[in-house]
Amino acid sequence: MFLSQGAHACADRKDFMASEYTIRDLASEFEVTTRTIRFYEDQGLLMPERRGQHRIFSLRDRIRLRLILRGKRLGFSLAEIREIIDMYDEQPGEVGQLEHFLEKLEMRRADLQEKLNDIEMTLSELDAVEAVCRQRLTDMKKGKAAE
């Protein structure tokens, strides 16, 4: 799903029927810098063909870039993203990839829920401290006015 969903989404879009892309094409489409794309290439996540000084990216690279960026937005590390994407080509293939990805999503959701609970508790504590401070300030001002 993680990889195949991107593949199906790409196949349905007529504006991206090209089979080759330059680094500028991808940077423009995904609104990232060429440096970002070169970084993902250096990490082995993208494997463009070299034609002289030029990098030529395939549809597969384009899909992988889309999935890398999606994974980053979801809060996954590059190692986790690589593991999920690479599972598509390994046994048990897409089934294993989907099962693994669902486990990762569940773990990510639990982590975010825990952080949300911590944030809500902290906000509640801030509200309580603020109320005490405001009351103390009000009392102090009333005391000065009475003098």
UniProtKB/TrEMBL annotation:
UniProt cross-references to PROSITE patterns, sorted A to Z: HTH_MERR_2
Domain HTH merR-type: 20-87
Keywords from the named record: Coiled coil, DNA-binding
GO terms of molecular function: DNA binding; DNA-binding transcription factor activity
Matching SUPFAM superfamilies: Putative DNA-binding domain
Pfam families the UniProt entry points to: MerR_1 (PF13411)
Coiled coil: 95-129
InterPro entries named among the record's database cross-references: DNA-bd_dom_put_sf, MerR-type_HTH_dom, MerR_fam
Signal sequence, start to end: none
Keyword Coiled coil found: yes
SMART domains for this protein: HTH_MERR (SM00422)
Name this polypeptide is given: MerR family transcriptional regulator
